[in-house]
Amino acid sequence: MSEETFDKMxxxxxxxxKLLTNDELTPAQHIAILTKLIVTILELAKENGVVSEQxxxxxxxxxxxxxxQS
Length: 70
Known about the structure:
By secondary structure, this protein is mainly alpha-helical. The protein has a domain at 28-70. The chain contains three helices and no strands. It has helices spanning 3-20, 27-47, 53-69. Helix 1 packs antiparallel against helix 2 (27-47) and helix 2 (27-47) runs antiparallel to helix 3. It starts with a helix and ends with a helix.
């Protein structure tokens, strides 16, 4: 993993964890934040050649369907 990718990941995760500890957020906002975390992890995996674009898109679709069904 490149240093640039690691720095991006570290910054994103820190921002997300700060948001998750905010007691003023609604459950829907927490779900949105966790969804962003999952998508960020998948995008970083794609950038590093761990997953393909197709896998990334399939995961995003499955996340969207799960959210709509909840």
